[in-house]
Write a structure and sequence with these properties.
By secondary structure, the protein is α/β, with parallel strands linked by helices. The protein has twelve helices and 18 strands.
Amino acid sequence: MNSNFNRRTFLKYSSLAALGVQFLPFQGLKAAPSDRVRIAHIGLGGMGLNHLRWFANLPEAEIVALCDVDTLRASEALAKLKEIHPDSKAQVYQDFRRILERDDIDAVTIATPDHWHAQIAILAFQAGKDVYGEKPLSYSQKEGLWMQKSQQETGRVFQLGTQIHAGDNYHRVAEIVKSGVLGKIKTVRLWKTGEPPLIEKLNYQAPPSNLDWDMWLGPAPLADYAPEKCHFTYRYFMEYSGGVFQDFWCHIADVVWWSLEPEGLKKIHARGEESDGVGDTPKWINVDMNFKKLDLHWSSVRPDVPGEIGQSIGAYFEGTKGTLICDYSKREIRIDGKVMEDIPEIPQTITRSPGHQQNFIDAVKARTQPESHLEYARQMVMPMHLAMISYQLQEELKWNAKKEEFKNNDAANSMLLRPYREKWNLIGI
């Protein structure tokens, strides 16, 4: 068979394959080297503009469409794109469904508020598009499960936007931990300092003419418009996100799931205090999680552990033979009183990333799943969702990992999914 066949034929045939969790059965086929993956960006705020810049500078990617419920943001994004590619013919939309109708688009990136992530991704899978979706994957636990089911049924590629995952430091930490040099690791401590900003009041008013507020709300409860609840600061309202904890969990928990693959969650207990002002996400939150072979602790303050030198975010692995502390770019190992940054004797066993976005493009063309694929991302994000439920109920919860439900707690189980506003239940679930 000729390995160089056109992009549309390639994507047509590959979309017929059912995903075998991590790999698709077309690994021997490659798109012609001259072909580029045609991408549309949905959500064009701060992170959405980062998506645009990243993919616009990849030779194998072509940005063909931009979408935001705020037409002003979409216009500004188009101007940014034309600074990079003056001859761009990208079309601008306010409704993402118009993008999914186009059969000449191969993949979408999603940088909307959290409460829209799952539905857009599922609809994209169903429309034959691959997806690069921002953290924290989904608004609720059950949405993540639906996303994975839809991806498996449609055979699409998915990458979670945990860009730090591509860095060498996390690769190396995972190699060191997996090598066993630290002994058996029974405890890991994670932290992220910082409180949400003080939002003193909500200034209710008519939505600006450039914003489709009803669609911005989408599946979330109907609410009057206030600029403080929209765009960047939406993340400090529980209707749409989960504050600092939900914003940063993926970035630092990622290195734990990569290194140790925690499984068999049994109990979760979160304590915290609501933020000051009108925002209702946690001002601080401490969480204890008990897995089958690991105790995991999250804190909103830095723990008093060896090597902690003021990092605002970090992970501390406690092994029977040594410890390792790390943040995004640094690490420090302690074994038998010796402090070191690396152990050269431990070989590189994990292939280094070509870059998080390039990894996604490579996966789309080769029909493999990238590093932060959906099954991995869902397992890593799920405990965060459960912790938020424990925080809201202010009680310890017992979890049945096999059934993915809380034990003997109807109130907690009812919070695994927030029902969609009927008008915006686009996936019929």
